[in-house]
Amino acid sequence: MADELPSGAAEVAEDFPEIWEAYCRLGAACAEGGPLDDRERRLVKLAFSMAVGSEGATHSHVRRALDDDISVDELRHIAMLAVPTLGFPRAVAALTWIDDVLDEEELDEDDDLDEDDA
């Protein structure tokens, strides 16, 4: 799931492959250019997404965090850490975006269970 691109990014990747490849190389260079490990980078990127108010990016980083075995409690804690810096409304929005993904994951699990019953 984490490898799937949102529709806008997928269009850019398809329409402008050289630019997309350069963007990916930049992301890799930024990730590898410092001491943070994968888990720390994932949490920071999630916090950045919340801070700029990007619902789509927050959804994406929540999905990736779950794939990386970051707990729901940790995800929600990040949103609560936003309260004093970003404000209560932004933190509440971030919580709803986390819940959007958790609800999707729950639906996916329910669908898998239904398929197993068939």
Can you describe this structure?
Residues 17-99 form the Carboxymuconolactone decarboxylase-like domain. It holds the Pfam family CMD. InterPro entries: AhpD-like, CMD-like. The structure is a single chain. The model has no long low-confidence stretch (mean pLDDT 90). With 118 residues, this protein is mainly alpha-helical. The longest helix has 30 residues, at 88-117. It has two domains: 1-34, no CATH class; 36-117, AhpD-like (Up-down Bundle), CATH 1.20.1290.10. The protein has helices spanning 7-15, 17-32, 38-51, 55-67, 72-86, 88-117.
Rg from Cα: 16 Å
CATH superfamily of the largest domain: AhpD-like
Query: Which class of secondary structure composition applies to the elements?
Result: mainly alpha
Q: Tally of extended strands?
A: 0
Poorly predicted runs of 5 or more residues: none
**What is the straight-line distance between the termini?**
24 Å
Beta-strand content bin? under 5%
Helical fraction: over 70%
CATH fold descriptor of the largest domain: AhpD-like
- Please, what is the average pLDDT? 90
Number of domains: 2
Query: What does the main sheet amount to?
Result: none
Q: What is the number of helical segments per DSSP (H or I, 4+ residues)?
A: 6
Q: Assign an overall shape.
A: globular
For the record, the CATH class of the largest domain is Mainly Alpha
The CATH architecture of the largest domain is Up-down Bundle
Element order: H for helix, E for strand:
HHHHHH
